[in-house]
Amino acid sequence: MTLDIPRIEQLLQDGVRDRVYPGAVWAVGDAEGTTASGSAGLLDPDRADEPMRLDTVFDIASLTKIVAAWAVIGTLVEEGKLQLHTPLGTFWPEVTSHPLAQVTTHELLTHTAGLPLRANLKNLYGTDPQDIRDGVLHESLHRAPSEAVEYTDRAALILGYLAEYLADQPLDHLAASRVWEPLGMPETHFGPLPADVIARCAPTELDEETGTHLKGTAHDFSARLLGGTCGIAGAFSTLADLTRFLRHMLAPTQAAFGPGWIADSLRIRTGELTPARGLFWHPAPGTDLREDVWVHYGFTGTGMWISPKQQRWAILLTNKLYFTRDREPLTAVRDYYRETVFAEVTLQGRVRADR
Predict the structure, then answer these.
(1) DSSP letter at 325?
(2) Can you name the residues that pair with 316 across neighbouring β-strands?
(3) Which of 40, 68, 154, 189 could form a disulfide with 115 if both were Cys (CB 3.0 to 4.6 A apart)?
(4) 3-state helix, strand, coil in the chain (%, to 5)
(5) Alpha-carbon span 111 to 98, nearest angstrom
(6) Is the Cβ–Cβ distance between 164 and 121 less than 8 Å?
(7) What are residue 91's phi and psi, to 5 degrees?
(8) pLDDT (tens digit, 9 = 90+) per residue, 39-48?
(9) pLDDT for residue 320 is more than 60
(10) Against a cut of 0.90, is the pTM above it?
């Protein structure tokens, strides 16, 4: 399949023109490396002489759920330290005798645990990290487990806490030692970032307290409340580092999580419930399951797609929150980008070229 690079470049330039985001970087590739990549727009609209660059550092927001929480949990599962269908209360003393005791790791990863839908950490539990941890782990469920698929940040937060309990290390150390360092991701870190890295960081939303756009500090309030590190968000990364992560997913080595975890995650794990989910990953909107295209997004304007069947991955990183929280304009760009990168295969096995 020939990649329509001019179409992608025009799409992303149009997004800059329409103020969907100040700038964007993108890449498409396979297990061997990057097929094509590029950038569009500015790092910061207030600095017209500074273009968005391929080595820009992005607040990847909920992609943290994948490159930290999902990946670390995968290593623990493959080491035999965690069983997906075992109720948490049978081995985790912090949740024993609390509502979360009946929930399984599988239900957390498929967003079927019945957890409260909003994090709302400060209002419910205050600002002390231990009080927040206790509150989250002891909170009542919103509904019975395995009853419905309902996306909630709390699932990743709890999985981060679970990983810390099982490995007896903080999540930032676990992600670095088990995933980022073995995969050669030297520019992936939880924030806040040091000054020399902030200079290459894409600014996000305006901070009303300081009157400046957040840069090098996580946009996600829960991550900031918890010192920058949690399973929900807080990680920063670059196009090159995320490329290494996705290449590993297509051709896994012994360095980090392996092929079993990847295969188990990139298949429907929610039965007849809708929307369909794998383990944290979900089928890309607008695709047929036969296409085998999986995605995860980040609220700041980031996204990663992968298709084992097509042996292709794609990344699109933007700082759309600089302008707005409105999701619709970026959703249209993402969908068109995905359509361009991953061709839809018809029942006859031919590639559609009518888009």
Answers:
(1) -
(2) 26, 303
(3) 154
(4) 35, 15, 45
(5) 19
(6) no
(7) -140, -5
(8) 999 999 999 9
(9) yes
(10) yes
